[in-house]
Specification:
The chain has 71 residues and is mainly α. It contains two helices and no strands. The protein has helices at residues 5-14, 20-70. The protein starts with a helix and ends with a helix.
Length: 71
């Protein structure tokens, strides 16, 4: 039976072990994804805190300040 070049190509592509450069690149991408995810979470939390302050706590602060100004 003759060797099938396509089969050899597919076997080589699916059984290749990651080398040091590939592992470093993968770790770099994972750490970059972690930094981006953390940044997005921090910005989202800040926006939610600002909205809560403006729509929930701000009217009470305004009324308290107005009451203190009147004496």
């Amino acid at each position: 039976m003759t060797d099938d070049p396509m089969r050899a190509f597919l076997e080589e592509a699916t059984t290749t072990n990651a080398t040091g450069g590939d592992v470093r690149r993968a770790l770099g991408l994972v750490s970059l994804l972690s930094v981006v995810t953390t940044s997005v979470a921090a910005v989202t939390a800040a926006i939610i805190a600002l909205v809560v302050f403006l729509f929930v706590l701000s009217p009470f602060a305004f009324l308290l300040g107005f009451g203190l100004m009147l004496g």
